[in-house]
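Forum: Protein Structure Q&A
Topic: Joint prediction for protein chains with partners

I've read a bunch of threads here and the consensus seems to be that you should model interacting components together rather than docking separate models afterwards. I'd like to see that in practice. Below is the full input, 705 residues plus whatever partners are listed. Could one of the regulars post the assembled result?
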Amino acid sequence: MTDHAHNIPEEFKESLMFDPRPREEMNDMVMESMHTVGKAYWWAVGILSFIVATSLFGVWFFMIFKGMGYAGMNVPVFWGLFIVNFVFWIGISHAGTFVSAILRVFKAEFRRPFTRAAELMTTFGLASAGMYPLIHLGRVWVFYWMIPYPNQRLLWPNTRSPLVWDFMAITTYLLSSLMYLYLPLIPDMAMARDRSTGWRYTVYRLLALGWRGTEKEWAYLRKAINIFAWAIIPVMFSVHTIVSWDFAVSMKIGWHSTIFGPYFVTGAILSGVSAVMMVLFVIRATMKHMKYFIRLEHFDALAKLVLIFSMSWAYFFYNDFLLEWYGGEKTGHEMLANLMYGPNAWIWWSMLVFNILIPWLTLWSKKVRRTPWLLFVIATLINVGMYFERVVIVTMIPQVNRFPFAWGDYVPRMEIFISIGSLALFLLLYLLASRLIPIIPVWEVEEGHHAHSLRKYGKEYIPTVSDLD
Amino acid sequence: MAAEEKGKWGMVIDQDICTGCNACVVACAMENNIPFVGEDETAYGRGMHWIRVERQWEGHFPEVAAVYQPVMCQQCGRAPCEPVCPVFATLHSETEHINLQVYNRCIGTRYCANNCPYVARRFNWFDYEWPAPLDNHLNPDVTVRGRGVMEKCTFCVQRIKRAEDEAAAEGREVRDGEVQPACAQACPTDAIIFGRLDDPESRVSKAARSKRGERLLEDLGTQPKVTYLKGGARYD
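Posted by a regular:
Agreed with the consensus. Here's the joint model:
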């Protein structure tokens, strides 16, 4: 509560929840951060748009008209970096739901200032991921044959195919995460509406759905958010499990693994939460007033999550590896030997270093956890490591199969441009969104301020949180 | 799909008399309009041949023998490629009991190829061309595939259908030996036998029952229709 502000001891001032500012001041801070657009911002938008137009869409259309052969795929590596990127971006998209929904239903209070930033990652990660099944298709112009609708071909999609499950799961996840992004956005849209003019006013007025902030509206909104937060969690788990089934239900050595479901989900959350740290670092460094909202305590908490997920990823990785090795199948041994000692073994070893060694050695230290730039470096390495994990699974495991005469190598070609292009697409969407919608859910922060208070027992200050539901 | 499928059409390949001459590969390419992609592309793993002749060395120096194993689509009774296709482009033929590939229905997810334990499937990475006069040899009975679709050995289904049509017109069953895929027709040592497995008296059925016979990766439960004979130059 604001009246506490003057007598709060210094040690609690570090925490956002015990360092409240007046409502109007916070609103203005967020509005100002949205309106502050420097020269560097426009340069970034311009360069990223150019990359998206040429490297993503240009190269993609070229490949559509000329053939998939300009990519590096071959027999036996039928799925190349396209599917690697697909799995990677789906993984990134898990951050939003994990950070926002799971931390919300478990009432983890540190989530408040960055739920929006994480939810945006879900949506834009899915936008990047969703393109890849299309880019990857040999005949993308007939992609709609996968959509179940009554048609003149009298054909229904094959519901036994994991690709159809994928299609359903990702569509469900995209729609539900969009709604989940939008619901907590409504009060902030109303806030922005009341403080802007011109075209922004028109847009915000439409998106705010006439929100006035009455008690009834709040009650409905809280209920809706609660329902969605609970409902989206199983959807999130199912999405990456189904993505893993693309591999796990096949007969391929190294893919045919029952542990792939939780292994993929854990890896997705590891890379996703790391990516949230990266985004928070960039937001904090480049946008106005963000140092007030995003503090060292948040990096600290996220880094702990990353450490935990690095450990669970290592556990699943070990399970997956050990069973293949202990199983003693000849092809499996050859496959593992190719990963560990083959021509591309550096990818496999870097994956272990980036995903296990680096987080385990660094994130124990509170000092590291509270040094944002160092966390940014570590989170980047973890994401590289998780990217390598998908490279190993999608492109290196198939190189060795049951017929040594059909073994092969894989060298990415046009995939590299398209990968850079889709990274640019993600960054571009995020850049645009950061100036169009309030990146900090002000009402959630303020709600937290109201819920938190310090009680004085004797000479001791005790932090307390009241349950608002 | 039946749990145990006997199958209708089957093939036997006698590795003991196969000389690895690759005539089957060439004949198959001619019959099925398989494009030539050049050395570099083939070396990179994009050769379009539906058959690959694997050369395996057996024994230790100086007693080394080369054993040749032509591998093509095994026309599995329980084919791993079939359930994973999202658009039913690869599916089981109810009448021929082989795996069909419907080119016009394929959207190119390449999942079937990933799930084929025999690595028997080929993908059209480009629109391949037949510069004149090569275009003159195109077989009018076989679709020329465009870019972005999957293809594989069909057991020369166009020849099977023609023989069946002719037999039906004459009101009889297809005679043993009447249908020969291009590979069997071209084989100089007659190492490839083709015919009906549902006829216990056919040449292919008898050969498939041989004690020398084995099927590739049969332990995966794929029920392949191709039997490989190996283990000594003795016929029984």
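Chain B has a mean pLDDT of 91.
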